[in-house]
Amino acid sequence: HGGLKYGIDFAGGTLVQLKFKNPPVIEDVRDGLKTIGLGDSEIQEFGSKSHILIRVERSEAKLEEVGTRIKNSLSGKYSAEEIVIERVEMVGPKVGKDLREKAILSIIYAIIGIVIYISWRFEFQYAIAAIIALIHDVMVTMGVFSVVDKEFTLVIVAAFLAIIGYSLNDTIVIFDRIRENMRRRGKKGQVEVINTSINQTLSRTILTSGTTLLVVVALFLLGGEIIHDFSFALMVGVFVGTYSSIFIASVFLVYWANRSSTKRA
Hints:
Oligomer: single chain
Largest sheet: 4 strands, antiparallel
Mean pLDDT: 84
CATH topology of the largest domain: Multidrug efflux transporter AcrB transmembrane fold
Distance between the termini: 49 Å
Structural class: alpha+beta
Number of strands: 6
CATH architecture of the largest domain: Up-down Bundle
CATH superfamily of the largest domain: Multidrug efflux transporter AcrB transmembrane domain
Low-confidence stretches: none
Number of helices: 8
Protein backbone atom coordinates (compact mmCIF):
# COMPACT_ATOMS: atom_id res chain seq x y z
CA HIS A 1 0.00 0.00 0.00
CA GLY A 2 1.16 3.52 -0.75
CA GLY A 3 -0.28 5.05 2.43
CA LEU A 4 -3.70 6.50 3.12
CA LYS A 5 -6.26 6.49 0.35
CA TYR A 6 -7.71 10.01 0.42
CA GLY A 7 -11.35 10.45 -0.52
CA ILE A 8 -12.82 13.18 -2.71
CA ASP A 9 -12.90 15.51 0.34
CA PHE A 10 -9.10 15.64 0.51
CA ALA A 11 -7.80 14.52 -2.89
CA GLY A 12 -10.21 16.57 -5.01
CA GLY A 13 -12.06 15.28 -8.05
CA THR A 14 -15.59 14.31 -9.03
CA LEU A 15 -17.79 11.57 -7.60
CA VAL A 16 -20.83 10.17 -9.43
CA GLN A 17 -23.21 7.63 -7.87
CA LEU A 18 -25.46 5.67 -10.23
CA LYS A 19 -28.34 3.32 -9.53
CA PHE A 20 -29.13 0.62 -12.10
CA LYS A 21 -32.38 -1.29 -12.47
CA ASN A 22 -30.34 -4.50 -12.63
CA PRO A 23 -26.74 -5.12 -11.48
CA PRO A 24 -24.43 -3.74 -14.21
CA VAL A 25 -21.32 -5.35 -15.66
CA ILE A 26 -18.37 -3.24 -14.46
CA GLU A 27 -16.43 -3.78 -17.70
CA ASP A 28 -19.39 -2.48 -19.71
CA VAL A 29 -19.41 0.65 -17.55
CA ARG A 30 -15.67 1.12 -18.03
CA ASP A 31 -15.99 0.68 -21.81
CA GLY A 32 -18.64 3.39 -21.83
CA LEU A 33 -16.44 5.75 -19.80
CA LYS A 34 -13.56 5.22 -22.24
CA THR A 35 -15.67 6.73 -25.02
CA ILE A 36 -15.75 10.07 -23.15
CA GLY A 37 -12.13 10.01 -21.99
CA LEU A 38 -12.82 8.80 -18.44
CA GLY A 39 -11.52 5.25 -18.82
CA ASP A 40 -9.03 5.71 -15.95
CA SER A 41 -11.81 6.47 -13.45
CA GLU A 42 -12.23 4.26 -10.40
CA ILE A 43 -15.44 2.18 -10.42
CA GLN A 44 -16.77 0.29 -7.41
CA GLU A 45 -19.99 -1.17 -6.06
CA PHE A 46 -21.64 0.86 -3.32
CA GLY A 47 -23.95 -0.90 -0.88
CA SER A 48 -25.68 -3.23 -3.34
CA LYS A 49 -24.67 -4.60 -6.73
CA SER A 50 -27.12 -2.22 -8.42
CA HIS A 51 -25.33 0.87 -7.09
CA ILE A 52 -21.92 1.96 -8.34
CA LEU A 53 -19.59 4.86 -7.56
CA ILE A 54 -17.48 6.42 -10.28
CA ARG A 55 -14.55 8.54 -9.10
CA VAL A 56 -12.92 10.88 -11.56
CA GLU A 57 -9.56 12.27 -10.43
CA ARG A 58 -10.03 15.67 -12.05
CA SER A 59 -12.76 18.15 -11.16
CA GLU A 60 -15.27 18.56 -13.96
CA ALA A 61 -16.52 22.04 -14.85
CA LYS A 62 -20.24 21.43 -14.32
CA LEU A 63 -21.73 18.79 -12.05
CA GLU A 64 -24.87 18.33 -14.12
CA GLU A 65 -22.88 17.82 -17.30
CA VAL A 66 -20.54 15.13 -15.97
CA GLY A 67 -23.46 13.07 -14.62
CA THR A 68 -25.34 13.36 -17.90
CA ARG A 69 -22.22 12.60 -19.97
CA ILE A 70 -21.55 9.42 -17.99
CA LYS A 71 -25.18 8.33 -18.26
CA ASN A 72 -25.17 8.96 -22.03
CA SER A 73 -21.91 7.04 -22.44
CA LEU A 74 -23.68 3.94 -21.13
CA SER A 75 -26.63 4.24 -23.51
CA GLY A 76 -25.20 1.54 -25.79
CA LYS A 77 -25.63 -1.08 -23.05
CA TYR A 78 -28.37 0.37 -20.85
CA SER A 79 -31.48 2.41 -21.58
CA ALA A 80 -32.02 5.80 -19.92
CA GLU A 81 -34.79 4.32 -17.76
CA GLU A 82 -32.39 1.73 -16.32
CA ILE A 83 -29.98 4.33 -14.90
CA VAL A 84 -30.63 6.95 -12.22
CA ILE A 85 -28.02 9.57 -11.26
CA GLU A 86 -28.31 9.60 -7.46
CA ARG A 87 -25.42 11.87 -6.55
CA VAL A 88 -22.73 14.04 -8.12
CA GLU A 89 -20.08 15.72 -5.95
CA MET A 90 -17.06 17.78 -6.86
CA VAL A 91 -14.14 19.09 -4.79
CA GLY A 92 -11.40 21.19 -6.37
CA PRO A 93 -7.73 20.38 -5.59
CA LYS A 94 -7.25 23.63 -3.63
CA VAL A 95 -10.36 22.98 -1.51
CA GLY A 96 -9.18 19.41 -0.91
CA LYS A 97 -5.80 20.68 0.29
CA ASP A 98 -7.44 23.23 2.59
CA LEU A 99 -9.72 20.57 4.07
CA ARG A 100 -6.75 18.27 4.64
CA GLU A 101 -4.86 21.00 6.50
CA LYS A 102 -7.90 21.89 8.62
CA ALA A 103 -8.46 18.24 9.51
CA ILE A 104 -4.87 17.93 10.76
CA LEU A 105 -5.19 21.20 12.69
CA SER A 106 -8.43 20.07 14.35
CA ILE A 107 -6.66 16.98 15.75
CA ILE A 108 -3.63 19.04 16.86
CA TYR A 109 -5.84 21.60 18.63
CA ALA A 110 -7.73 18.80 20.38
CA ILE A 111 -4.45 17.30 21.63
CA ILE A 112 -3.16 20.69 22.87
CA GLY A 113 -6.42 21.29 24.74
CA ILE A 114 -6.15 17.84 26.34
CA VAL A 115 -2.56 18.50 27.51
CA ILE A 116 -3.60 21.79 29.13
CA TYR A 117 -6.68 20.29 30.82
CA ILE A 118 -5.00 17.15 32.21
CA SER A 119 -1.92 19.12 33.37
CA TRP A 120 -4.28 21.40 35.30
CA ARG A 121 -6.55 18.66 36.69
CA PHE A 122 -3.80 16.11 37.40
CA GLU A 123 -0.06 16.54 36.74
CA PHE A 124 2.10 17.06 33.67
CA GLN A 125 3.24 13.42 33.48
CA TYR A 126 -0.40 12.34 33.35
CA ALA A 127 -0.95 14.63 30.36
CA ILE A 128 2.07 13.20 28.52
CA ALA A 129 0.90 9.64 29.24
CA ALA A 130 -2.59 10.41 27.91
CA ILE A 131 -1.23 12.05 24.74
CA ILE A 132 1.10 9.10 24.01
CA ALA A 133 -1.91 6.77 24.30
CA LEU A 134 -4.06 9.01 22.06
CA ILE A 135 -1.38 9.29 19.37
CA HIS A 136 -1.08 5.49 19.49
CA ASP A 137 -4.87 5.12 19.05
CA VAL A 138 -5.01 7.46 16.05
CA MET A 139 -1.92 5.98 14.37
CA VAL A 140 -3.10 2.37 14.78
CA THR A 141 -6.60 3.17 13.46
CA MET A 142 -5.05 5.09 10.57
CA GLY A 143 -2.77 2.14 9.86
CA VAL A 144 -5.73 -0.26 9.78
CA PHE A 145 -7.49 2.06 7.31
CA SER A 146 -4.41 2.03 5.10
CA VAL A 147 -4.06 -1.77 5.24
CA VAL A 148 -7.71 -2.46 4.37
CA ASP A 149 -7.60 0.28 1.69
CA LYS A 150 -10.53 2.29 3.03
CA GLU A 151 -10.98 5.94 2.09
CA PHE A 152 -9.88 8.69 4.46
CA THR A 153 -12.57 11.39 4.42
CA LEU A 154 -13.92 14.18 6.62
CA VAL A 155 -16.32 11.65 8.16
CA ILE A 156 -13.31 9.60 9.29
CA VAL A 157 -11.73 12.71 10.84
CA ALA A 158 -14.93 13.07 12.89
CA ALA A 159 -14.58 9.40 13.88
CA PHE A 160 -10.97 10.01 14.97
CA LEU A 161 -12.05 12.92 17.18
CA ALA A 162 -14.73 10.67 18.71
CA ILE A 163 -12.08 7.99 19.31
CA ILE A 164 -9.84 10.55 21.03
CA GLY A 165 -12.73 11.57 23.30
CA TYR A 166 -13.65 7.97 24.15
CA SER A 167 -10.08 6.86 24.81
CA LEU A 168 -9.40 9.94 26.92
CA ASN A 169 -12.48 9.24 29.05
CA ASP A 170 -11.23 5.70 29.71
CA THR A 171 -7.76 6.97 30.58
CA ILE A 172 -9.01 9.69 32.94
CA VAL A 173 -11.11 7.15 34.90
CA ILE A 174 -7.94 5.15 35.57
CA PHE A 175 -5.90 8.30 36.32
CA ASP A 176 -8.53 9.52 38.78
CA ARG A 177 -8.37 6.23 40.69
CA ILE A 178 -4.55 6.37 40.68
CA ARG A 179 -4.61 9.91 42.09
CA GLU A 180 -7.15 8.92 44.74
CA ASN A 181 -5.09 5.89 45.81
CA MET A 182 -1.86 7.93 45.83
CA ARG A 183 -3.30 10.16 48.55
CA ARG A 184 -3.78 7.22 50.92
CA ARG A 185 -1.06 4.86 49.76
CA GLY A 186 0.83 4.76 53.06
CA LYS A 187 4.05 2.81 52.53
CA LYS A 188 3.06 1.43 49.14
CA GLY A 189 5.25 2.31 46.18
CA GLN A 190 3.91 4.22 43.16
CA VAL A 191 4.12 1.18 40.89
CA GLU A 192 2.07 -0.91 43.32
CA VAL A 193 -0.54 1.85 43.61
CA ILE A 194 -0.83 2.13 39.81
CA ASN A 195 -1.24 -1.64 39.47
CA THR A 196 -3.91 -1.70 42.20
CA SER A 197 -5.77 1.19 40.56
CA ILE A 198 -5.83 -0.58 37.18
CA ASN A 199 -7.23 -3.73 38.80
CA GLN A 200 -9.91 -1.72 40.61
CA THR A 201 -11.12 -0.06 37.38
CA LEU A 202 -10.64 -3.07 35.08
CA SER A 203 -14.19 -4.43 35.33
CA ARG A 204 -15.64 -0.98 34.66
CA THR A 205 -13.35 -0.52 31.64
CA ILE A 206 -14.24 -3.91 30.14
CA LEU A 207 -17.99 -3.52 30.70
CA THR A 208 -18.09 0.02 29.28
CA SER A 209 -15.99 -0.90 26.25
CA GLY A 210 -17.98 -4.08 25.67
CA THR A 211 -21.35 -2.32 25.62
CA THR A 212 -19.96 0.46 23.42
CA LEU A 213 -18.54 -2.10 20.98
CA LEU A 214 -21.92 -3.84 20.77
CA VAL A 215 -23.54 -0.59 19.62
CA VAL A 216 -20.73 0.21 17.17
CA VAL A 217 -20.80 -3.33 15.70
CA ALA A 218 -24.58 -2.99 15.26
CA LEU A 219 -24.00 0.28 13.37
CA PHE A 220 -21.33 -1.41 11.26
CA LEU A 221 -23.54 -4.36 10.33
CA LEU A 222 -26.93 -2.67 10.06
CA GLY A 223 -26.25 1.03 9.54
CA GLY A 224 -25.85 0.91 5.77
CA GLU A 225 -23.06 1.93 3.43
CA ILE A 226 -23.20 5.64 4.30
CA ILE A 227 -21.87 5.15 7.86
CA HIS A 228 -19.99 1.91 7.20
CA ASP A 229 -16.50 3.45 7.27
CA PHE A 230 -17.38 5.73 10.20
CA SER A 231 -18.55 2.80 12.33
CA PHE A 232 -15.54 0.72 11.22
CA ALA A 233 -13.20 3.47 12.46
CA LEU A 234 -15.07 3.64 15.78
CA MET A 235 -14.96 -0.14 16.13
CA VAL A 236 -11.18 -0.22 15.71
CA GLY A 237 -10.74 2.92 17.85
CA VAL A 238 -12.80 1.68 20.81
CA PHE A 239 -10.87 -1.60 20.90
CA VAL A 240 -7.48 0.10 20.58
CA GLY A 241 -8.42 2.88 23.03
CA THR A 242 -9.43 0.34 25.68
CA TYR A 243 -6.10 -1.45 25.77
CA SER A 244 -4.04 1.75 25.35
CA SER A 245 -5.57 3.20 28.54
CA ILE A 246 -4.36 0.16 30.47
CA PHE A 247 -1.20 -0.94 28.68
CA ILE A 248 0.21 2.34 27.35
CA ALA A 249 -0.95 5.35 29.41
CA SER A 250 -0.62 3.52 32.74
CA VAL A 251 2.66 1.86 31.75
CA PHE A 252 4.11 5.28 30.95
CA LEU A 253 3.21 6.41 34.49
CA VAL A 254 5.04 3.33 35.83
CA TYR A 255 8.05 4.26 33.69
CA TRP A 256 7.90 7.84 34.99
CA ALA A 257 7.63 6.63 38.61
CA ASN A 258 10.63 4.28 38.18
CA ARG A 259 12.61 7.07 36.52
CA SER A 260 11.84 9.47 39.37
CA SER A 261 12.83 6.84 41.96
CA THR A 262 16.14 6.22 40.17
CA LYS A 263 16.92 9.95 40.11
CA ARG A 264 16.21 10.30 43.83
CA ALA A 265 18.43 7.30 44.56
